[in-house]
Specification:
Helix content: 25-40%
Number of helices: 12
Oligomer: single chain
Strand content: 15-25%
Strand order of the largest sheet: 1-2-3-4-5
Number of strands: 14
Largest sheet: 5 strands, antiparallel
Order of helices and strands: HHEEEEEHHHHHHEEEEEEHEHEHEH
Shape: globular
Distance between the termini: 76 Å
C-alpha cells in the first residue's frame, strides 16, 4: 500500500537542500554544474550529482544513485527509515541556497556541436600560450606536447587553456576536456568517451588509464612514450560512453598474451574507488590488472612528473 507522505516528501524535498543541510556542508561547484546536473563537493574527492530537477542524485565515482530518501541514508549510514522521514519533514519546501542561474554558472548553452567548436581551435605550436602553460606550469616535455598536438587530440584554447579531445572512432570529436591556468571543466553538449594517445583504434598490449588527460601525458613522459602503450584518460567519472570505450579496448586486449591494464588514478579515496571499478572491468574480460598509484597521498601523476623535473633541475 502506498504511503502518501513518502510521495509528498519526494516531491517537496530537493536533494540539493539535503546536501546543504548535512554537515560538513556540501558546496556547489558552479563551474562544472548545469541546470540539469548540479555538481556538489565535500572534502577531497567526495562528489555527488543532483539530477532530475532535484528529485534524484548519483555518484560519478561509483554506481550509487537514488532518490531523496536514499540520499539521507547514504549521508547518514545506519539511520532508520523513521528518522529519515523526520529529517526530510524539517526541510520540506525549502529551496537550495543558490538560484538556478547561479548554479548553472550563468552559461548559455551553445547551439554549435562540440566537434564544430573543436574545429575552430588551432593546433598547439611551440611558444604558444597553451604550450607555455603545459611546459612551464605542468612541466610536460616538448616532445609529449608535440606528440599530442600532432595526433590531433590537443588544441589551443582561450587564455592559455588546453583542449583535450575524446574521440569516437579515429577522428570524430565527442567530448572536450579543458584545463588551464584559471579554469578546469569541459565543453557543454559532449558525451564522454576516452582521451587517447595515440588516438587511432589499434591493439595495445598495455593500457594506462588516468583520470585527467594531463596525467595521461605525464605518464607518457615518465615512460618516454612507450610504443606498446595506449595512454588514456576518462576526464573524471565513468560515463556510459567511457565504459563502452573501455570494453572495446579490453575485448581487443583479452586475446593478447602479454596484455596489462593499468589504472593510474589519483592517490586519494576517489581515485581508489575509480581503480576498483577499473579492476572489476579488467577481471570481467580476464585481462591482467595493475594499480599505478602516485607515491604521495593526495597526488596525481602530473605531481610526480613535476617533482622529477624539479629534482633533475636541481642536480643540473
Amino acid at each position: 500500500m502506498s504511503d502518501p507522505e513518502i510521495e509528498d516528501l519526494r516531491d517537496k524535498v530537493h536533494c540539493a537542500v539535503v546536501l546543504e543541510h548535512t554537515p560538513p556542508t556540501w558546496k556547489l561547484d558552479r563551474r562544472e554544474s548545469t541546470k540539469l546536473s548540479l555538481k556538489y563537493r565535500r572534502g577531497k574527492g567526495e562528489i555527488l550529482i543532483v539530477s532530475h530537477g532535484g528529485k534524484g542524485w548519483w555518484d560519478p565515482t561509483s554506481d550509487a544513485k537514488g532518490d531523496v530518501f536514499g540520499l539521507v541514508q547514504r549521508l547518514e549510514p545506519g539511520i532508520n527509515f523513521g528518522h529519515v522521514r523526520k529529517r526530510l519533514r524539517e526541510i520540506a519546501g525549502l529551496s537550495p541556497s543558490f538560484p538556478i542561474a547561479e548554479r548553472a554558472g550563468r552559461r548559455k548553452a551553445s547551439e554549435r556541436s562540440v566537434a564544430e567548436r573543436w574545429a575552430e581551435r588551432r593546433a598547439v605550436w611551440p611558444g604558444s600560450p597553451t604550450w607555455r602553460y603545459l611546459a612551464r606550469k605542468r612541466l610536460l616535455p616538448p616532445a609529449i606536447i608535440e606528440a599530442a598536438s600532432a595526433a590531433g587530440v590537443l588544441r589551443e584554447g582561450p587564455a592559455g587553456s588546453a583542449w583535450f579531445a575524446h574521440l569516437n572512432g579515429a577522428t570524430s570529436v565527442a567530448h572536450v576536456d579543458i584545463r588551464g591556468p584559471t579554469y578546469k571543466g569541459s565543453l557543454t553538449g559532449g558525451a564522454k568517451s576516452l582521451f587517447r594517445l595515440p588516438p587511432l583504434a589499434q591493439s595495445f598490449s598495455r593500457v594506462v588509464l588516468a583520470e585527467a588527460a594531463i596525467d595521461a601525458l605525464s605518464l607518457a613522459a615518465i615512460d618516454c612514450l612507450r610504443a606498446d602503450t595506449l595512454y588514456a584518460a576518462t576526464g573524471g567519472g565513468m560515463r556510459p560512453g567511457t565504459i563502452a570505450a573501455l570494453e572495446v579496448l579490453l575485448t581487443a586486449m583479452a586475446i593478447l598474451p602479454d596484455a596489462l591494464f593499468c589504472s593510474a588514478t589519483d592517490a586519494d579515496r576517489s581515485g581508489d574507488r575509480f581503480a576498483e571499478r577499473h579492476r572489476s572491468l579488467a577481471e570481467r574480460f580476464s585481462v591482467p590488472f595493475a594499480r599505478l598509484r602516485p607515491p604521495v597521498e593526495g597526488g596525481d601523476w602530473n605531481d610526480v612528473l613535476s617533482l622529477r623535473s624539479q629534482h633533475q633541475g636541481s642536480r643540473s
